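Deliverable D5.2: sample structural annotation.
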Amino acid sequence: MKKNLSISCILLAVVTIFSLYFYQERETKSLPASIEPYTETAVILSDYIDFEKSIYIGHKSDHEILYKNYADNYIRSVDLNTQEQQELIKLDTQTNGTMTTFDYKDNWFVWSESQDAELRVGSSIGENWAVYAADLRTGEIIFVDGENDFFPKTRNFDPHPWSLSVNGSFVVYASYTANEDGIYPAIKIYDLNNHKLEIADTADSMQTTFGSPSVNDKNVVYLKYDSNGSSLWTYDIEKHKRMCIEPPEPLQEICITNSFIVGVSEWQPQKSESLYCYDFAHKKWSKQIDATTKLYPNNIDSTLEFAELQSSNDFITWRPITGNALYVWDITTNKVLDLSENVSGLIDYVLYPFDEDYLVWCETNTQTQETKYPCIKISSSS
């Protein structure tokens, strides 16, 4: 009798401990992120480069930025302390076309270009398109992908990538693949170390499309759109394996960090969007930011929306579609950093890429119409 009673007590204790554990986990997951002002001083990059004649590429170091003039093919660096400039590399390619999209990470600059004369008027077919990668340390330029004989010269679509993402080891992009079997939308991966191009996924027809992919050291994530709506996919680079992950609700935009997938729920009229987080290690979703997280000042009556979602390490940045604000979510501490104190004008857009935690945006003074480009480095707070 006493033995049975002891066993019952032990079982009850175990059940109680597990119940408390899972209850505490649910409570932690459901708590809204805390919000605090971010007061680091911004550096005005437009004091160093002319943004009307140049594009900002990224940071080479804490005190050096990279840019490219529209008028030539050189990538240059500028020392923010001395204002000394240096030519790093000339992007001299076989195509020598117009640059259409680019990304930068860990000394790798990747871009796509086309010789199509209609690029600027919106009716491009991406004639003689190509993708290149340049190692800024060595000056080497690598041909990644481009036009082949299976792409018809008379076509009604543009096959060159509509986005590029690089993490220092891999380049990923959504484009088209063309061979003897036909032409299909595809997700492509290029290994910068082994110089190999791989097809991660292809669509069954031209009616199926892909969203912009995102990459870390192990996985590629992307949205796939077909007649059934959107679906979220991951591709394990090492295992060469695809997997569909079902989110709590359909997503309209995603990005990847070192350890997480972050996605924004699909837009619905008069309904706030939510920010979801998928933990690769635990294979679990959690809703981290939603309408209960009071991000807007009291004088702004608006639903919660996320625009220009980007990631860098374990930081996520976005800005609301309405209202003049800029936020960074620190996943490691579950805190939202409000950058409002660094915004002095009307935010026009956030620059891409959000590289090595350096966030750059364009803002305009509504009285003088002066435009400037502040830059701030985001650091984690305990």
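Annotation notes: The domain at 32-49+253-382 is CATH 2.40.128 (Lipocalin). Residues 1-5, 7-31 have pLDDT under 50 and may be disordered.
The annotation will be released with the project's public dataset once the embargo ends.
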